[in-house]
Amino acid sequence: MRLLRFLPDETHFDFVGKRLIAFALSAALFVLTLGSLGVQGLNLGIDFAGGILIEAKSGQDIDVGALRATLGSKDLGGVELQQFGGPRDILIRVQQQEGGEAANRAAIETVRGTLGPGWEYRRVELVGPKVGGELLRDGVIATVLAILGITAYVAFRFEWQFGVAALIATAHDVVCTLGLFTLFQLEFDLTAVAALLTLAGYSINDTVVVFDRIRETMRRQKSWDMRMLINESVNQTLSRTILTSGSTLLAILPLLMFGGSALFNFTLALTFGILLGTYSSVYVAAALLLYMKPIRPGRPVAGEAATAGEGR
Q1: Owning domain of residue 105
Q2: What is the spatial distance between Cα 21 and Cα 25, in angstroms, rounded to a whole number?
Q3: Is residue 296 part of a domain?
Q4: SS3 assignment for 3-56
Q5: Final residue before a domain boundary, out of 127, 162, 189
Q6: Do 258 and 173 share a structural domain?
Q7: Contact yes or no for 17/242 (Cβ under 8 A)
Q8: Which of 57, 100, 176, 279 is the most interior residue, by most CB within 10 Å?
Q9: What's the sign of the alpha-carbon dihedral 109, 114, 120, 121?
Q10: What's the sign of the alpha-carbon dihedral 59, 126, 179, 169?
């Protein structure tokens, strides 16, 4: 077991002392995300924006420039080509066609005819704008309900102060991970929503472990102030937090590097979110309890403590 110890048995890092730096960093990420959403918006995938998505592989190396020019001359509207994986793999996006489903299917046949023989079609998707809008709405609702459900669970298991701290920390992780999609214009589709929901569950898992240790320490050390109590609790769970996050990343990184385009955005969001969630559990969620002090049964208030001291 000692081989798994990357940290000493006892650490005494002053996490609470660095809370203002952490809050400033989190605020900067939050503002950057909102600013990018306002200016650039999300690069909505076919799932949400509607349109045609074709993933294909050629029998020979693809000249992307020539293929883009050829498809651009076919009166299909906006056509985007993205090479991925290798020189023979291509991802083709075609905007929603006017004329309904029949026009979209005709556009698919036009693309197939333009590409000609010798192509392997791995994925052909067609999503209408109405369905895409409904999926986007449902994705937002699912994410918000997940965060609120997590908040209610933490508030019920601990106290309302813990619930509010968990709400802020989880929303922080989800919104800042959303910023990754808008800043780098990564395609935002149903897979991205799945990544955000997965991240919300993973983030609260780390936070609950820290909160549970804080509650336990509150019961054992009634004379400690909240700053000392939070620092001690976070230090006690630090090794577990790092090992859990590290082992999860070991499973995700191979998928990120070798999983291909279909899994890239999902695994990139999880990788970034796990690092962000570990940071928020240690620096953000616990430190917020300083400003919403939980009830500590059995601890005398300041005036009573002073009176007791004078009597002795």
Answers
A1: 51-127
A2: 6
A3: no
A4: HHCCCCCCCCCCCHHHHHHHHHHHHHHHHHHHHHHHHCCCEECHHHHCEEEEEE
A5: 127
A6: yes
A7: no
A8: 176
A9: negative
A10: negative
**Per-residue confidence in pLDDT tens, the chain, 312 aa:** 444 555 666 777 788 888 889 899 999 999 999 999 999 888 877 777 777 888 888 888 888 888 888 887 777 777 777 777 678 888 888 877 777 777 878 888 888 888 888 888 888 877 766 666 777 788 788 888 888 888 888 788 778 888 888 888 888 888 999 999 999 888 888 888 888 888 888 888 888 888 888 888 888 877 778 888 888 888 888 888 888 888 888 888 888 888 766 678 889 999 998 999 888 888 888 888 888 766 555 554 444 443 334 433
Greatest distance between any 2 Cα atoms in the chain? 95
- Same-domain check for residues 56 and 169: no
Domain containing 22 — which CATH number?
Answer: 1.20.1640.10
Give a yes or no: residue 236 inside a domain.
yes
Residues 146, 261, single domain; the answer is yes
Same domain, 37 and 183: yes
pTM value is 0.73
Indicate whether 122 and 137 sit together in one domain.
no
Please name the residue that has the structure tokens 């929503």.
193
Identity of the amino acid at 81: L
